[in-house]
């Protein structure tokens, strides 16, 4: 993900992520009209952003109404707002406000960034090449796949963000290295009875906090269904005692909640000196030193 800035006085910013900027065209990797790109509050504020108007192509939303009928409530409300903004004629006051707007932001759906294009002298960015995608699959299995077509989006500056991708942590747990997720069926890990997944390792780095909450609830429902149906192992389980012994045998010292509280207090203390709520600790070695490890 990243940000692409055009040469037209800073008025054409294309965001290749789900935080939006001034734009004549925004694009997120495999951004789909029904994928959560922000919170509902953030989207409302952006639509009413002073001095700016939204640009959404109604073609991108064809057939979307049927797709979101069974969607979780947060995703459904967000998508409905996008749908209304893209397809409905604004009221008199809103139309007048948009007519006076000197800037515009937009979303380019079904596009995935492929390449930063250089200027003729090779010294600066001149554009971003986007792959055109289409949807395949249904429900949670829906994926955006390349059609073979590309589009070039002019820009003069590209800022990349850190990004995120899950990694496998145990060879006994199946893992899709290409997508960065654990293969599953409604949260049930494939071929590993009694093991479940949720969040970004389940669906990839998409959505907001409410999306992850809803996702976790759905996985929890599957777990309860299996528990009631007798599909889960019964009898006593060793629990934390066994985990603690395993970590100790490997020379691993876990960070406890009281340890976290010490780090939290240190961050708050450092932040007060700089006039901020906290100053984040980002070096793991420094954290361990503060904990006396």
Automatic annotation (TrEMBL):
<keyword id="KW-0560">Oxidoreductase</keyword>
<keyword id="KW-0521">NADP</keyword>
<dbReference type="InterPro" id="IPR036188">
    <property type="entry name" value="FAD/NAD-bd_sf"/>
</dbReference>
<dbReference type="InterPro" id="IPR055275">
    <property type="entry name" value="Ferredox_Rdtase"/>
</dbReference>
<keyword id="KW-0274">FAD</keyword>
<protein>
    <submittedName>
        <fullName>NADPH:adrenodoxin oxidoreductase, mitochondrial-like</fullName>
    </submittedName>
</protein>
<keyword id="KW-0285">Flavoprotein</keyword>
